[in-house]
Every structure is written in structure tokens, then in C-alpha cells.
UniProtKB/TrEMBL annotation:
PANTHER family (UniProt xref): TRNA THREONYLCARBAMOYLADENOSINE BIOSYNTHESIS PROTEIN TSAE
NCBIfam families reported in the protein's UniProt record: T6A_YjeE
Organism: Pseudidiomarina maritima
SUPFAM superfamilies named among the record's database cross-references: P-loop containing nucleoside triphosphate hydrolases
Pfam families to which the protein is assigned, alphabetical: TsaE
Protein name in UniProt: tRNA threonylcarbamoyladenosine biosynthesis protein TsaE
């Protein structure tokens, strides 16, 4: 395992960390294209998972608003050469619901999966390349980025 721990004093610093990871993805475009890059986002309600996702998605080229997929379960963004699928599984009643919604359609080459509350989709989501844990640290945030694959390690080392 390979971990980076950061202390982020405010939302701007959280967004900057997300942008750095997105830039690492751009720098390793070929290895990310091979199969779905999967990033799990862990943390309490309001910790900053969606904020991190917003910074990441916008750095990869999305110009508009990044909506929280809390009610839709997934929001997709076509940002050539990738399709980013941002999942929020907080309201998922049963992991099997992912099969019914066609989870396999969101996997494959040139796909990036950002999954908030991934533990609720256990058994249906792919294993993560990177796990990002965001914790409260008084009014700031502590963030841990952990690589679980060689590709994940390459991305974190590029940050």
C-alpha cells in the first residue's frame, strides 16, 4: 500500500488536491485508458467528497455545474478521452440495485469511476485503484489518499 496524508485548511485546498489528482490522470492517460480507473471517496456527510469530485471533474474539462448524484445515484460526464461516472450510493438500499441500473455499462476502457459511499455497493463496484478518505480536523480537513494498485501508486506519485 502507498499512502499520502494531507492537511487541508479550507475548501480551496481540497479543490487543489482534486485538481492535482486530475492532472496526474492526464499525465498517465494511456494507463488510465486501459480499463476503468476506480476511486472510492470515504468520509462523513458533509466532509467534502462531492467537493473533491467537483474539483476533479472540472479539472478534466467539465465547464458546468457538477451536481451531487445523491438522488440520481450517478451523474456522467463525457470529457474526451474519458467518461467520468460519479456515483453517490448513500441512498442505495441494496447493492443489487446497481445490477438493475446497469452498472456494467459504466465500466470499461476510458472510464473513470468516482464512488461516494462505495461500501453500499460492495460486490458490484470494481475494486478501487485509489481510496480517498476525508475527515474533519476542526474547521479544516485531513485527507488520506491510498493507492491499492500499481496504477494508483503511479498517479499518487505524480501528484
Amino acid at each position: 500500500m502507498h499512502k499520502h496524508r494531507l492537511f487541508l485548511k479550507d475548501e480551496a485546498a481540497l479543490l487543489e488536491a482534486a485538481r492535482k489528482l486530475a492532472n496526474a490522470v492526464k499525465a498517465h492517460e494511456d494507463s488510465v485508458a486501459e480499463s476503468a480507473l476506480t476511486i472510492y471517496l470515504l468520509g462523513e456527510l458533509g466532509a467534502g467528497k462531492t467537493t473533491f469530485s467537483r474539483g476533479f471533474i472540472q479539472q478534466l474539462g467539465h465547464q458546468g455545474h457538477v451536481k451531487s448524484p445523491t438522488y440520481t445515484l450517478v451523474e456522467s460526464y463525457d470529457l474526451a478521452p474519458w467518461q467520468i461516472n460519479h456515483f453517490d450510493l448513500y441512498r442505495l438500499a441494496d447493492p443489487e440495485e446497481l445490477e438493475f441500473m446497469g452498472i456494467r455499462d459504466y465500466l470499461g476502457t476510458h472510464r473513470i469511476i468516482l464512488a461516494e459511499w462505495p461500501q453500499r455497493g460492495e460486490g458490484y463496484l470494481p475494486q478501487p485503484d485509489i481510496i480517498i478518505t476525508i475527515d474533519y480536523a476542526d474547521t479544516a480537513r485531513s485527507i488520506t489518499l491510498e493507492a491499492l494498485t500499481e496504477r494508483g501508486r503511479e498517479l499518487l506519485d505524480t501528484m
